[in-house]
Automatic annotation (TrEMBL):
Positions of the Glucosamine/galactosamine-6-phosphate isomerase domain: 17-228
Protein name: Glucosamine-6-phosphate deaminase
Known regulation of activity: Allosterically activated by N-acetylglucosamine 6-phosphate (GlcNAc6P).
Catalytic reaction(s) noted: alpha-D-glucosamine 6-phosphate + H2O = beta-D-fructose 6-phosphate + NH4(+)
HAMAP family: GlcN6P_deamin
Gene name, Swiss-Prot/TrEMBL: nagB
Residues the record marks as site: Part of the allosteric site: 147, 154, 156-157
Length: 263
């Protein structure tokens, strides 16, 4: 696990975007991206879009698979992840909408929709680089505490803390869906590379559990300690409770942000 501590949230987005671009550019043929929603990866997407607009990165042939979707929200709902992915990822990165996949949270047979999603990822050749944020309770995707570390795409009941965290996007807490479809931890671990970005003091305890805590279902993100190729990019606030913070900060102190994944 490679830990990069940045001065600001925007710098963290720049560094994380550089790592995603590096993996995508090194792929022979079109890349397959795993994309996340939430506030954590927004700066990453902005910097990736800037690379596309400058002509430094071509993602026109890439495919993308979203981590999750609410159950019961139609794709046309502005708070559905299908809508958010289209707005924050598909359009800015110049992706072909036909190649961007989101779990079908409005499907009549949700279990079959989960199996179909796993099959679609496999048919695409697997995810080359999975973009992640982390919840304040350590969840990645919607894999809440106590999720199986070997889980696959499935239906999950949202933790009340997660619903409260997401209530800012809805008129009231009662409007926040209670169920979702999410890629499992085992599905996420199949990605060839992972880039996780987190910002702010509110994520500090989750980040500490992810990086330095024991591998435990109580902090689902900690399973990434077992992945071969993980880059964690965080700002100073999110790094504030790390025991080895000074060691991680020194690792890339000699390189400016834009050079950290330039090779």
């Amino acid at each position: 696990m490679e830990i990069v501590i940045c001065s600001t949230a925007d710098e963290a987005g720049e560094v994380a975007a550089a790592r995603v671009a590096q993996v995508a550019s090194q792929k022979e043929g079109p890349a397959v991206l795993g994309v996340a929603t939430g506030s954590s990866p927004l700066a990453l997407y902005r910097h990736l879009a800037a690379r596309v607009q400058r002509g430094d990165l071509d993602l026109s042939g890439a495919s993308a698979f979203a981590l999750d979707e609410y159950v019961g929200l139609p794709a046309s709902d502005p708070q559905s992840y299908a809508s958010i992915i289209n707005e924050t990822v598909t359009v800015p990165l110049g992706l072909d909408p036909a190649r961007v996949h989101v779990p079908q949270g409005s499907a009549q047979d949700l279990r079959q929709a989960c199996e179909d999603y796993e099959a679609a990822i496999k048919a695409a050749g697997g995810v080359d680089v999975q973009i992640l944020g982390i919840g304040s309770n350590g969840h990645i995707g919607f894999n809440e505490p106590t999720s199986s570390l070997a889980s696959r795409t499935r239906i999950k009941t949202l933790n009340e803390q997660t619903r409260r965290d997401n209530a800012r996007f809805f008129p009231t807490l009662d409007d926040v869906p209670r169920h979702c479809l999410t890629q499992g931890l085992g599905t996420i671990m199949d990605a060839r590379a992972v880039v996780l970005v987190a910002q702010g003091e509110g994520k500090a305890d989750a980040v500490a559990g992810l990086i330095e805590g024991p591998v435990s279902a109580m902090c689902p993100g900690s399973v990434l300690q077992l992945h071969r190729t993980v880059t964690v990019v965080i700002d100073e606030a999110a790094a504030s409770t790390l025991t080895l913070r000074d060691y991680y900060a020194h690792t890339y102190a000699h390189k400016p942000a834009w050079q950290r994944f330039a090779d």
